[in-house]
Amino acid sequence: MNAKSVIEAYWTRMEARNWDGVAELLATDVVVEWPDTAERFVGREACVGVNREYPGGWSIRVLQVAADTDHPDQAVSEVEVPQAGVGVSRAGSFWRVSAGLIVQGTEYWTTVGGETPPAWRAAFSEPGSPAGTP
Fold first, then answer.
1. Is the pLDDT of residue 19 over 60?
2. How far apart are CA 17 and CA 59, in angstroms?
């Protein structure tokens, strides 16, 4: 499988809570980083575990997965994750795949509308969609 299809399968399995299926897509020594919280998850067990144990009430909507033909081992994804009682989160993720397995990921998570923009930008911006749709 190419990087794009691996990442598409990853998000499909995440949405289905198919943890064994997610594990099948991860290298045993995979490393996933979340710079927003300065966390690094090393190894298949840690990466599956943090997602499996994440509090419930969420779903995943894949907004896009893209791959560059010049870098067939890399893919980028954007997902939206509504969660009851929390709001809507978005993740922009950068993935590296080798031999059909995810070997590295960097995910930037944010809460849609979770930050108040500085007043100086008001002259240049307009309100975005509160639902977080592109």
1. yes
2. 10
